[in-house]
Write a structure and sequence with these properties.
The structure is a homodimer of 453-residue chains. Chain A is of the alpha/beta class and 453 residues long. Chain A has 3 domains: 232 residues, Alpha-Beta Complex (Amidase signature (AS) enzymes), CATH 3.90.1300; 139 residues, Amidase signature (AS) domain (Amidase signature (AS) enzymes, Alpha-Beta Complex); 44 residues, no CATH class. Chain A is built from 14 helices and 13 strands. In chain A, the strands form 2 sheets. In chain A, strands 1-3-2-4-6-5-12-13-9-7-8 form an 11-stranded mixed beta sheet, with helices on both faces. The longest helix of chain A is centred in the C-terminal third of the chain and has 26 residues. In chain A, 58% of the residues are buried. Chains A and B meet through α9 and α11 of A and α9 and α11 of B.
Chain lengths: 453, 453
């Protein structure tokens, strides 16, 4: 047993085989989280709460009656999910929420299945940024090199998984917040199709873009977790008629498009790793140029700012000092936009969908790097790649916003490391509502690139 | 044969039986449209275009090779649908469109099925009003009493059907524009679920509320027409994955809710007719009170104004005099709204859906009057009913906006006449995407109330 490096699926097998107990697994998690406290992964975790859950799970498993495959598995929760036992702050001082015995639907689903709700992870304040350097408890540190950022906004969740503190973690994704830190920390992260997974009990950033997602150490782990995420939830109207998740095995050769274009530049290093990875798949990947990416990106930003401001308006008026200066500036920007500007942005979204579905050669999976560069160093304001100089913030959402603007399911898988030893991730995108097909195709990629089965 | 009063289905049967030819039917239509020109139903129709289509249809039918059930049936088209052979003006001087050999998808479908595209009908300018008294060719007149209005915005289509000029007509509905004039003129009008019918080639009023719909003299006629309206159209992204229409026969007793509440008042006369009609169905109809209707209504208005202004912005800047003063005032209102106000309105829409699906006792059909009063007289600015005094415009959309704000399928069927002999319609609403179920239930209503089979 390799508690640090095992995937969740391996932990599930080890628990079932009695190689260790849920209690010893929880104790190891607590120990590791404390040992690596300098990574700043957690806002809070509580030994007694964790051990109490683990004892009950241990008894169930010992008596041969586990209630689900994930019974006894410690799972970390981003600090914008409501949890019955932990406070929720979204790493902001603006309006902390005391535990009120309410779990977000996904947390409730996991808890009911016996998972150990381990603690709340550090995040970019209100998820309103992709670096994870703006947080009321300070920045997260990349486990591959603490001088580098993790990306965000689900940075703490990525650290907790990548450094072997927990079996898996929950993130949320409005412009890449699951995928960005997953890629930067060398793990797997999945954003389901908009509206297939419940956001009930997750503090919103931008409700027409937000999607919750699992972060884990293997594709198999992601697939074990998705039934707890997906399907109709009467408390989240965006999930109206949403199908539950059922893993499938794909037959047939997927049609792969390798996207590029002005606004989708990447560093030579990342480009090479991605191209080599695609080669390993032995699949034909046609290069396809997207146009008008800047217009779509500005539409995504407009929707994001307007919806975020709409959600935070009361707090912004009552307690402006509760927000960090940078978050407050974003929120003020949303107040100045007109209804006509917002409608233009919403029309761009429809136009993007049209181009993805009707103007491109038919495809099963779209390929992009998840990030244009490996994780930057702390303190760097700008990044240069592909002939561009952009803010570190924009370099993080560079490709990822595209998945939220279009609502398509997106996955990041690790495919290599940079010269400095930092992880590089590949993003795979599927068609709307076809999350199962995307994951089935991703298994082919993962197998041929990483040898994972 | 009763050319004036036959339903389309009866005309179809008569054509098939050789009782008359498509050509003589077209000649009768032309004659009748000219004879009743004072009703002001048409912007334009062209004898030679009509007769040319009818001759070809006559030959097909005579040779025993009709290409569809509606081969040879004259159909009138609201003047906001693009037509290959007629200009399109939306009854405004702002930006008339010359025929460019382009049909709206629905027109193209009907034309391909052999229907005679008869002419373009009078409408409320840009569909931006529900009285049909604002039009660059003047108001439509109610065929039951020319001193009364028809309602709108598809007023000309309603007149053309109600007075037996054509077999059926096309309308569009953003706040009731199919249902209002259908009810006021004693015919059947149907608004499909938002996103199940193509709007490609229909000039928009408010794209997130607009739905096209058929207007006819029977429920059977509506069901014959719907396959030409519904299903996925690559040119209209709102129809993504939309199912085509397939009529079904309903078994089981429908659960009926009779809606009322503050903002849903109606005149005593209309209330009595509706209650008597419900009694005739012998179905149990539970009264159900809706709350917050004013908030939802204001949300509908906000969405309408913003989207209409967004669409017309360039024309408003280039050619403001092209619009009537009242339409221009509406469009100017849309410029003053903020992104945050629009988002509140969009949130209200989500909240309305939630309340309809999750907070009400389960239902199969919702019942309302289509209009709170029979068709008002021309020249009346205000209406009084149920203890309220409201503008004639607001009295027309009084119940109907609710179907667009929620996106649900809505039907109006005639159920009685007022003391003055003006028609009174009942509105039936179904669940989203369940248009077929709604129509199956409506057949039960129609049979028991009107003896229609």
């Amino acid at each position: 047993m390799h508690l640090k490096s095992d995937t969740m699926s391996q932990k599930i097998a080890a628990l079932a085989a009695g190689e260790y107990s849920a209690l010893s697994l929880a104790e190891h998690s607590l120990e590791r989280a404390k040992k690596l406290a300098s990574l700043n992964a957690f806002v809070t975790f509580d030994d007694s709460l964790v051990l109490k859950q683990a004892e009950v799970a241990s008894q169930r498993i010992a008596s041969g009656r586990p209630i689900s495959p994930i019974d006894g598995i410690p799972i970390a929760v981003k600090d914008n999910y409501l949890t019955a036992d932990y406070p929720t702050t979204a790493c902001s001082d603006a309006r902390p929420i005391a535990p009120e015995n309410i779990d977000a639907t996904i947390v409730a689903n996991l808890r009911a299945a016996g998972a150990i709700i381990f603690g709340k992870t550090n995040m970019h304040e209100w998820a309103y940024g992709a670096t994870n350097t703006t947080s009321n408890i300070g920045a997260t540190k990349n486990p591959y090199n603490q001088e580098h950022i993790t990306g965000g906004s689900s940075g703490g969740s990525a650290v907790a998984v990548a450094s072997g503190m927990v079996g898996a973690a929950l993130g949320s994704d409005t412009g890449g917040s699951v995928r960005i830190p997953s890629s930067a920390c060398g793990i797997y992260g999945f954003k389901p199709t908009y509206g297939r997974a419940s956001r009930h009990g997750i503090l919103p950033l931008s409700w027409s873009l937000d999607a919750p997602g699992p972060m884990a150490r293997s594709l198999a782990d992601i697939e074990v977790l998705l039934p707890f995420f997906m399907g109709q939830d009467p408390h989240d109207p965006s999930t109206f008629n949403a199908k539950p998740f059922r893993a499938i095995v794909k037959t047939g050769t997927p049609r792969v498009l390798n996207l590029y274009g002005e606004g989708f530049e990447r560093s030579d290093e990342v480009d090479l790793v991605i191209r080599q990875a695609i080669e390993k798949t032995e699949l034909v990947a046609e290069d396809y140029e997207l146009t008008d990416l800047w217009r779509y990106f500005s539409g995504w930003e407009t929707i994001l700012h307007c919806e975020a401001t709409s959600y935070h308006l009361q707090a912004l008026e009552k307690n402006p000092e509760g927000f960090s200066a940078v978050t407050r500036a974003h929120l003020e920007a949303g107040r100045r936009l007109s209804a006509l500007e917002l409608l233009e942005a919403q029309k761009l979204r429809a136009s993007l969908m049209r181009s993805l579905y009707y103007e491109m050669p038919d495809w099963d999976v779209l390929v992009l790097p998840t990030l244009p560069i490996p994780a930057p160093k702390h303190g760097e304001d700008c990044q240069e790649f592909g002939g561009r100089k952009v803010t570190t913030q924009d370099s993080m959402t560079w490709f990822c916003w595209f998945g939220n603007m279009s609502g398509l399911p997106c996955l990041t898988i690790p495919v290599g490391v940079s010269e400095l030893g930092l992880p590089i991730g590949m993003m795979l995108m599927g068609k709307a509502g076809r999350d199962e097909e995307l994951l089935a195709v991703a298994r082919i990629f993962d197998q041929r690139i990483n040898g994972c089965s």
